[in-house]
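Async update (no meeting this week)

Hi team, since we skipped the sync, here's where things stand on the single-chain job. The sequence we agreed to prioritize is pasted below, unchanged from the tracker. I ran it this morning and attached the output directly underneath so nobody has to dig for it. Comments welcome in thread, and please keep replies under the output.
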Amino acid sequence: MFFHWTYLLLIPGMILVFWAQQRVQSTYRKYSEIPSKMGLTGAQVAKTILDRMGIYDVSVEHVPGELTDHYDPSAKAVRLSDVVYNSNSLAAAAVAAHECGHVLQDVKGYKPMNMRAALVPAVNLGANFGPILIMAGLFISALGKVFIPLGIALFAAVIIFHIVTLPVEFDASNRALRLIDELGILQGEENQGARKVLNAAAFTYVATALYALLQLLQYILIALGQRD
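Output:
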């Protein structure tokens, strides 16, 4: 069996994820063409925020790629992509500030962030082996009653990870918007541009979480079908 009717449930989620990705790319492109009045590059924005917050043990580094920006708490490093590190655009300022928002979460011991980090091993296991066990249970009916529930249990860690990710990302964006306003990094209507960039990025996490929930629903329906 190579197709199960429950795959149809995933179509709305796929469309939503695709739309969210297109939205964040188009929003980023728009505001990446508008320079900020202060003219600070993404790297300078990050360094300014960290210095003003009295955080001196976190480095700001350049990484290749596009929108590969992230904060690595184990290395104490904010890593900014090609289009952010050297750019003085509104979009670059927003992204750099967002990553500094994660630094502040780390410094303050923000519990959802710590929880998300703790879930990573379970998520890797669930994402890699959960669907495999479910498919194996479908193809080998004698194993279905064991493999499919076990696959669902493993995949549940992925769902929890996505749910925990939402407050982490929204909180980092809120911290970023507050910082770039309070520190005068962006001024007036520039802050609205930054907000639109971060809101578009945040919606990709919402779309991904909803798609994962649809996957879980699909797996549960498959399990119920096997039981019948």
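Quick observations from my side:
The chain is about 75% helix and 5% strand.
The radius of gyration is 20 Å.
Reply here if anything looks off.
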